[in-house]
Amino acid sequence: MHIEEPAINQMEAQSSQTFPASPNPESLEIFQHSQAALQMALATSGLGWWNWNLVTEQSYYDPQWKSILGYQVDEITGHYRSFEQLIHPQDLPKVRQVLKNYLAGHTPIFEAEMRMLTKSGEWKWILSCGRVFQWDECGKAVWMTGTHRDITLEKLSQQVWQQQKNQLLEQVNKEISDRQLVEAQVQEKSQQLEITQAELKHTKRQLLQNEKMANLGKLVIDTANEIHNPINFIYCHLHPTGQYTEDLIKLIELYQYYYPTPTLEITSYLQQLDLNFIKTDLLRLIWSMQSGSERIQEIVSALRNFSGFDADKLQKSNLHEGIDSVIRILQHRLKPTQDSPGIEVIKEFGKLPLVECYPGELNQVFMNILTNAIEALEERMKQDYSLIPKIWIRTEIVNSHLSLVTNNDASTGDKAKKQKIRIHICDNGKGILPHIQRHIFEPFFTTKPVDKGKGLGLSISQQIIVEKYQGKLKCNSHLGQGTEFIIEMNTTARHYITRWA
Question: Residue ranges of the alpha helices (H) in 259-318?
């Protein structure tokens, strides 16, 4: 590229800053000598000199400035944009910002490193430094001067040093990584040992819990049997007793009608008895006893159904009967009280086939989930007195391709084995926080006080449904809206249970 030299009057303007308007020959000779000495000093030090008029954008670049980039004297014009055209596009915004900061007074000197294009097409690293040396009467910068130095070798040395540093750091990091890997392996083995110990401890607790539940189940069955016979005797005789009572009362009323004037002794005794009150209250007592005995029979039946007489045998079971028995057992927590409304249980039972299972185990799952739902509703009712507490229980049968569980068993070819049982148990309680929801199926995890929960209910439920029946137990909860538990399992579970056992 060829560019004209800067105007002569510009250079005269620069010279006038340091030399009188009408110099004598001796002063002119001294000035010219000083200029030549300055150019030699700059060339010796490897510096190029530049002047820039910020008002006219005219610039002066000395021959040394141009030669650093490989250009001839007449190949660069005397304009500021000639300087910017040679700057690398990635460095230009930075150079402009540095200049702006200097002119605004934020830095004492203009100093910028940049890549500039040489005549050969290569990029050189240049350090440009400068200052303003003339201002107008308003204090605005007019003239700026500075130097231009090639720092490419310094940059290359820095790059080599940085590469060596990076290689050294990489080597150190590798050694550290190798050491950390060894430490991690040792730590992993320690953690595996701790996990094994924790699993053994958990297994021991689980065995104790299972034994406790088995003993409790036997105790419940024995107690239910002991209660069943006498209460059945009472219940069976209450109806004739009520009938006899009504007959006797009717007989007394007939005597009063046909013999309105009894003897003095009978009259005195009737006044002491308050016969009208006794007639009314006696019938009410018999009806209450009949209602109470019916409730006891329901509870006994529910307990016997819940625990199961054949709990150790795999059998086809009606899940709806198991759910109903659990609801009857929990009736005392569902009915209204003086302090709170009752919890409404809405049942939407689909048409389910009989399911091969251990009924007692599934009833235990229903009990754990329903108990949690009741406790969630009780907790929310303490905070929201306008709440109408509800529990929804919905059952359905779905095809395997809509299942929550992937069926990997190749032997399930018939229609029955392609279907799944799905049970939804929902409540409109306060919901479960996300960070708590992640841990609800962990053994011994509980947010309840120590005397109200051991944290085993949902863990045991998951073990029964997921591990034993190869099903799915899923929890969906939204804070302030409620919680839903979804149980899904096969209608035929014999091959799973045999494999698990």
Answer: 264-273, 275-307
pLDDT tens sequence across 230-274: 777 777 877 788 888 888 888 888 888 888 888 888 888 878 887
Work out the pLDDT band at 427, boundaries 50, 70, 90: very high
401-436 exposure pattern, b = at least 16 Cβ within 10 A, e = fewer: eebebeeeeeebeeeebebbbbbbbbbbbbbbeeee
Tell me how far CA of residue 262 lies from CA of 144, 267, 273, 278, 279, in angstroms. 140, 6, 15, 19, 19
- Does residue 305 or residue 392 have the better pLDDT? 392
Element (H, E) at 183: helix 152-258
- In this prediction, residue 3 carries a pLDDT of 34
Calculate the alpha carbon distances from 140 to 133, 143, 149, 252, 256 in Å.
Answer: 11, 10, 27, 127, 129
pTM for this predicted structure: 0.47
Residue 110 CA to residue 131 CA, distance in Å, equals 6
Share the mean pLDDT of the chain: 80
Q: How confident is the model at residue 414 (pLDDT cuts 50, 70, 90)?
A: low
Annotate 52-76 with DSSP letters as a single string. Answer: EETTT-BEEE-HHHHHHTT--GGGS
Listed in sequence order, the residues at least 6 apart from 250 whose beta carbon sits closer than 8 Å to its beta carbon are none
By the 10 Å C-beta count (0-12 exposed, 13-18 middle, 19+ buried), 459 is classed as buried
The mean-pLDDT minimum among 149-153, 157-161, 454-458 falls in 454-458
DSSP 441: T
**Do 48 and 65 contact (CB within 8 A), yes or no?**
yes
Cross-sheet strand order for the sheet of 123-135: 59-61, 47-53, 141-150, 123-135, 110-117
The residue type of 442 is E
Is there a contact between 474 and 404 (Cβ–Cβ < 8 Å)? yes
Residues, the chain, total?
501
- Radius of gyration, CA atoms only, the chain: 49
Coil vs helix vs strand at 454 = coil
* Spatial distance between the Cα atoms of 5 and 494, rounded to a whole number of angstroms: 100
The percent helix, strand, coil of the chain (3-state, each to 5) is 55, 20, 25
Stated as kind and residue range, the H or E segment containing 488 is strand 482-490
